[in-house]
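agent> Task received from the user: take the single chain below, predict its 3D structure, and emit structure tokens. No templates, no multimer pairing.
agent> Plan: (1) validate residues, (2) run structure prediction, (3) serialize to tokens, (4) report one or two observations.
agent> Step 1 OK, no nonstandard residues flagged.
tool_call: predict_structure(input=
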Amino acid sequence: MSPSSSSPEPSPKSSPGSSPNPSRGRAASSGRPAAPGRPAAASDGFPVSRNARYVWYALLFVLGALVGTAGALVQAAWLPAGLLLALLAAAGLFYGGLRATGTQVGVAAAGGGWLVAVVLLSFGRPEGDGVFGGGVGELLFLFGGMGIAVMCTTLARLPRPAR
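)
tool_result: status=success, residues=163
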């Protein structure tokens, strides 16, 4: 038995799409191995620390609450066009959250802020005052916004551009 036969070698029978080193993750798709201790890369390739990602999620949650509040006011004020404008703003925020963070958690953070704002505004006060008067426009805004958030969450990630 020779010393070279005791070392493991990759088998030549591996499938064309499989990697000889299965421990290499997504970072290996760019052709270079991920360095240990290096922060994860965002969708555009820039290194992003975990704390910076959490700041993005908090910012998206706050933006979602602002867009939800503005949409609740606009959709009732200018019913056909306001509803469309409010839903387009929500869609832009949700898709922007996906693109900014590169993960579906970005959409969930923005959608969570939007949903919290809309639900809190749908509650009336004991005196009977409320933002939503009850009607088809309010239901379309609520269910349409939730549907858009789900669609953006389930979008496939776009491939990284070639460098």
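agent> Step 4: summary for the user.
Confidence is low (pLDDT under 50) at residues 22-32.
agent> Done.
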